[in-house]
Amino acid sequence: MERIQSAINKARANRQGGGAPPPQAAAPRALQAGGGSADIIAGAWQDIAMFKPSVRALKDNRVFTLKAGGDAAPFDMMRTRVFQQMRSNNWRRLAVVSPGKACGKTTLSANLAFSLARQPDLNLALIELDMRRPSLARTLGLQAGNEQFSRALEDRDPAFQHMLRYGHNLAFAFNRSPAPSMEELLQSSHATEVFSDLERVLDLSLMIFDMPPMLSSGEMMGFADQVDCVLLVAAAELTTLEEIDLCERNLSEVTNLLGVVLNKCRYADLAGGYG
Fold this sequence. Notes:
alpha/beta; Rossmann fold; 11 helices
């Protein structure tokens, strides 16, 4: 953890025009573009606690992309399309949102993250910003813990204290309990700096944000200027066409809509018979 904070403090001093940073400063500041060396980046990853997910728990929660295979194929296809489009536009921040609850956006986000992480040259972070009803830890099958990423956004703790990593290139930031005042928190200048720090210190190729449902809160619209593009997740037989259309129109006014994913469709053969 000291290596991460040292890198952040050094970058803060550089950005502010030199001088020694405060020795006990906990509030991270954005790093300069192209900041850390390979050793600093590797050390920062090593300082994030590692976890080994339960394959059975992931499958029970419909997360199939830890390894390639038939169940992972539809998500791997989506991964390829998402990453190609983002790379061609030099986009690095993706929000995943749904019109309402129970559309499966957190499950889809986890599948997309694990699928992307199988490409060893990518560094990735999945950040849970649905803090009204956080479910990422449960989706990953994690037991009780103290991670509460909202504390980092509130400038109470360093962000990496509330993160875990899988392997050498996939980091998760999540919350164990709901947090209040999310709309104001996500629009704060400190939250902006926290995300910039993570992007620079961990040399992230891609950040995925699991957002709250769009039609039940204002967080997504308020956070839209922090992301490059959005993936909208709808649930078959639950989400209406009117809700999809409303979300598409609102998102298109403030950011790039990458696409709409129809989830929980009982009859579609998304793998096309392959896998």
